[in-house]
Amino acid sequence: MTAESAEHTKHILPLRLYLAVGGALIVLTAVTVAVSFLHFGGWNVVVALSIAAIKATLVAMFFMHLKYDNKLYLFIFIVAVLFLAVFIVFTMFDTMTRDQIYDVKAGPITPDATIYQSNPADTSGTVADSTSVHR
């Protein structure tokens, strides 16, 4: 056995810890499913990504052994997650405010299209109220 392989066997974790982390991941998955049925408005994505980040951190820390390995690897992981968070936040700012920048006029392109008729079987040309079409 070389010195390098002996160094990597120092942090063998007990099975109890692996089962506890696995149980926590299962519970967090159930929380993710439960939260998906709740309506938080614009915060739905934030809540879902927060739970996903907690689960990813558990996997990285215990199953990938970042907690017990060289701290440089942990630092690189944290920096990568922070950069990802910044990119996601900027993307969310863009998608959540896009309608304020570009004024899109709601309404049908072709007002006399069949889809806008009050009765699709009716071909008399009666057009439904175009104000019911929203952005």
Characterise this structure.
It is a single chain. The radius of gyration is 26 Å and the shape is elongated. It starts with a helix and ends in a 34-residue tail after the last helix. With 135 residues, it is mostly helical. It has helices at 3-8, 15-36, 44-63, 71-101.
Number of helices: 4
- How confident overall, as mean pLDDT? 79
H/E element sequence: HHHH
What is the C-alpha radius of gyration, as a whole number of Å? 26 Å
Head-to-tail CA distance between termini? 67 Å
Strand runs, count: 0
Largest sheet: none
Structure class: mainly alpha
Strand content: under 5%
How many domains? The number is 1
Q: pLDDT under 50 segments (min length 5)?
A: none
Helix content: 55-70%
- Inertia-based shape: elongated
Annotate the secondary structure layout.
Elements: H1 3-8, H2 15-36, H3 44-63, H4 71-101
Helix pairs in contact: 2-3
Which key features would you list for this structure?
135 residues, elongated, mainly alpha, single chain, 4 helices
Question: Can you give me a brief rundown of this structure?
Answer:
The chain has 135 residues and is mostly helical. Helix content is 59%, strand content 0%. The model has no long low-confidence stretch (mean pLDDT 79).
